[in-house]
Amino acid sequence: MFFLDDKKGKSNATNVSNEENQTKGKSNEAISRRKVLATIGLGGVMLAGSVLGPRLASADNGSSNDKDNKDSKDGDRVLQVNNVAALKSLPMGQMKDGQHVLVGGYNKSGDGGGKLVRFVADSTKADNGGTVHRLTNGGNGREQNEAAKGGKPPKGEGCFEVVHQGVGDFRWFGIFDKNINADNALDALINDLSIHRVEAHSDLNFIKRHVYHRSDIEIDFHGHTVTTEGIELNTLDNPFGAVMFFQGVVTGVTQTVTLTEDISEYSDIFEVADSSMFEVDSWWHAQIKNNAAGGAQRELDYLIKVTEIFDATHVRFNYKLGWLLAKGRPITYKKVNPAFRCHVRNMSFVGIPVPPNGTSLRPFPTWDQIGSNPVAYEFAVECDASGIKASKVFWPVVMRRYNTHYVTERCQLMNPEERDWGGTGYLTQQINVLYGHIRDCNTSNARHLNDFTCAAYCMVENCHGDGDEYGPFVTHGQYEHDLTYINNSGLLSFANSGTTWGDSAKRVTVKKHIASRIVASKRLTDLTLEDCHAVVTYTKPGVKMANSGSFWVNMDGLQMRGCTAQEMVTISKGSSRAKRKNIIDSCSFGMLKGYEIARPIRSGTTQVGYTPSNGELTILNSEFYNIEDVTLGSINKLTLINTWFKGLPQVGGTLKIGTREIIMQGGGLVDCCFLLTGAWDKVGDVNNPKNKPDQWITIDGSAIFSGVNGEKAFLKSVDATNVVTWNFGNCTSIALDASTAHFSIQGGMNKLKAIGSQFTGGKYEVSADAFGSGAYFFMTSCVEEGVNRTSLPAESDTVKHSVGNLSIF
Length: 809
Prior knowledge:
By secondary structure, the protein is mostly beta strands. The protein contains 7 helices and 68 strands.
């Protein structure tokens, strides 16, 4: 047999044959309990399971004929058996309380199911097949002797309990593959609070949906496959019906306060009705009553911790508000005992088939109860999911609600069973979450990789989705705030799920991102996009994804730097909450024919996400290219610094301008015309009162116009109702043919000033009625080379253009 060398503490081999004969009539080689326990502490469960002899043996620390020594060492005696069946067959009457037995394996020695067990004489625990074993050979030995003497047998039959250091193993239960369902073993291990880690060393199958209310447990599947063949039906519409659902407990302690004053944005001090109910380090679900406009419009709905108590009505929580909470609104606080530190790691999960649907109705009543998903968390703190690779799931792979401080990393979803049914086909859905970090994850042909609904202070990093037309990265718009995305790829869609949730988000930052589309056009405040690129994508060979290669953004604290879109950028303004300026810097945007850089007032632009932009925007060091027929349909004031607009090569293009005021400093037009249509809000709509049509345009800072275009002019106004003020400073306009006008002013009310400008070739085009009463035309200190100026209006007190210019013919 094997034994432990007293000096070196290593396993050494000896003869294992005729073991019973070797142990009779002479001293045994010793395996003391202390040494066995020490070995277990060094990972010796595997050692013990592989070195035991094939038959029952015993050993002690002293000579077998030294009675005194033997009596003193009874507690150190360790029995050895080959397998669990041999353990359960031991004579019960000869088992003493505290007796240790090394079990060589579950079915046979060395099969991996070996363990050290201890007999607990007064235990009434049920045999669970793995950590608790009851003897099957009862009624003989000590019990019979005591009964024969008229005494009472010992209370209870006793049982063997595994001796461990907090790490459990499915092999203890005789589970070595998925042929034996692992549900009972999982329950036994996780519900044993002395176990803090559970390990799988083979593929497993589960047929139940487990709910656990405990903390401090880690389940590591070591990359093995988990299946759910034959799993029980889920309850209706329940993404939390996972194989493992870790859930904190709502205690029933509740308090509601109606705010007597505003709670400002960024505040971590909250009003309560009675602070005596709160304790530092206690956790509460804090929920503001929804706004009347939507049933889920809540700016506060999180699991947060008390960190300080100030007075009878104020406490500090571990959360800084993202939104102002107005006086008079009720907040309800519910005390929660969260699930802490429940981690699931390194699983290859394969769900079960669900019949295809393709409609918004269940094809049969239990259709959405068939599918399976691995893990869910609710009211959970510091609960991580890592290394989960899934396919054929129905509900989200990692489902979270009311989670705070967590990590989801190195997870993957490929080809889920369903994507069209709401809530299906997600890698992770996170509702009412704080301080989450999602990193190094990926999806293929999924609905969403990362879904936030009412989330704050979270980061998504190095995550990638292919087959991404459904949108790997989304938020619902339930007042999410302070979210950061870094080095990801896949379609982005923010605050885009409807008015029920609020259509709102704030301070979302995206850096170094590749996407088919970036959609952030609703009430998204302080959006930052840096080094983001919208690229044309194909759903299958030759089939282009609709609107791919485009940005849709809300102009409310918008800042874009170093971004590109192959086919479109569209700007709208659905909110006015920002304090910072709207800036687009060092960007490049291709433009498709018929599309809009800024939404005009027209049919369909009264809905949030499509409304015109009634604010100010600065664009610098950027360009718009491939312009044919594009609309700049709104914006009150647009400042262009070193920014270029370029028509489609060989064709040229027209940009229809509804912007009230444009200031161009540097940059310019290439094969492109600015066609002024009157101020964007001259007609008004339900969101914007009717306004004057007046427009102002200033060209300065060495701006350059060149090339040709279909309008045969660089700047043009033809609407008789237009009222335009034109200012030309240090700029150069070069017409390539005689029919191209530097400016074409056909009617309306106009005021023009040109000082220090240079015009080459082409012509000026001005109608006789363009500078009537109340108008003026003043041109001086300009250089003209070969310009046809015959259509300029006749000079008068308000029209001056012949003196002070240098004209070269």
